Amino acid sequence: MVDTLDVAMNDGQLSLPFDEPFSVSDEPGLWTPRDIWVRFTQRMIPYFAEDRRIDYKSSKRIQFDDLAAYLSCFSNTPDGGVLCYGVADDGTVLGCKSLDQRILNGIETCHLQKCPLSKPEFKRVPVVIGGEEDFLIIVYIPYIGKLAETNKSEAWIRYGDTKHKMSEEEKRDFRATRNEVSFELERAAYRYPQDFHLSIIQDFCDEFRSREQRSNWTNEETLIDRHLVEKVGEQYFPLNTLVLLAGKDPGRAIPGCRVRVQRFEGENEGSGESYRPIRDRFFEGSVVEIIQKASAFIGDALHNVTWLNADGKFVTTPEYPRWAWFEALVNACVHRSYSFSGTDTTIKIFSNRMEIESPGGFVPPVNENTIYDLRASRNHHFMDAMRYLGYVQMAREGTRRIRDSMAEYNLPEPQFKQEALHGVVVRVTLQNDHEKRNRSSDRDVAMHFGVEQWKLMQEHEIKIAAYTYRNEKIQVSEAQRLTGRTWATSKKDLERLCRKGILTFVPGDYARDPKAHYKLARASS
């Protein structure tokens, strides 16, 4: 039996022709961490590189503080994760047979002292290394739905193939989104009603009474019912929800309650001396005020473009549909984590895209793949109040409206992505397809040559024709500067346009006369 195994051995691993690691119907990329843990074998190692679901650890040196960090990390990551002891980062199988029994016991009891909220499960997977039997220790660490910290009060979470140490603000936000604590229901150090815009409160209460048929309710009864105010005896205590909705100075207690809008000339914001936004404004106040002021500023900062629609007609519109960026702005303000006190909601407008960045990650089970189908809210009561004021619908309509309005403008589908930058953020990217629309924006030029002729022209030809149309003539050196092509190539471009009947050559009085030039040959028929 041993001889047979030796013959089938390849690079130290057992390989039997009838023992494939997956069945025909298997798709390992879709396996959950639990699936991996239950079905894991030695032959599967090359198919599972380290990712959000699995991490390999060498058995040469076991560090229990590191194990505690991974227990916290996968316990805080939706779907959990698998830790595999006995495999190097490059996939080399090392095994765990050489480990002292005290170390083996320590791996299985580490969580009791160093991460007590985690609920790991352990098993040993047999492997063959150099013809000798060995084993791996496979640890399945399930997601527990509440913040799991180590005995050092550290909390970790998994992003991609790395673990990320949470800041205090991230931990607070994590607890809030898992209903452990709620930032919006904390009492605020504000006086009611002196520190609030009574007009906003009145609008909200009127809308609530009208929709819910509570015409006999007072404003205070409405605010208490909607979790905006608490009453103890005869005293009213405003909550953070009311501060966000109608506070005169929310920034005093919630520094992140503001939006920054920037417009840049090119596709990048630059750095150092090259960092020069064309427009740059901060908007503060209640969220209602912020949305009103920021939306007016954004609308003014966007350019109008003329483009050819699917019907072959020219239309003039803003760079982006209003509903797309307005919904993204509202979502960013309503769904952001206000526990990230020093981080602003930011909107950056570049020549080719708009980025709306909201502090805080997706709220499970929502992620970038389920954004149109599932709903979850971080600030439920605040979102509910904004619904009565007509800003949100609370039924996934916001993200769908962004997508659908972009489609109506023949623009790419919006991108939703969570990133770990200065803390965790969700970024919505709207692309304006500016290259194609720059081509389309020369409406007067296209109408002169005829739309059909214009659609067949190459980009550098469009530039030459537009320049000639507006300046009445063009020389080779001007075409060269305009297109960035060589002098000889530009000469050929002009001659080609002459052959197409778009330009005509006007010679000078003698050879190489600098007055020689090209001009338009004809107008559209």
TrEMBL record:
InterPro entries, per this entry? Answer: RecG_C_sf (IPR038475), Schlafen_AlbA_2_dom (IPR007421), Schlafen_AlbA_2_dom_sf (IPR038461)
Which Gene3D superfamilies does this one have?
Answer: 3.30.565.60, Schlafen, AAA domain
| Pfam families noted in UniProt | HATPase_c_4 (PF13749), SLFN_AlbA_2 (PF04326)
The name of this protein is Schlafen AlbA-2 domain-containing protein
Please state every residue range assigned to the domain named Schlafen AlbA-2: 50-167
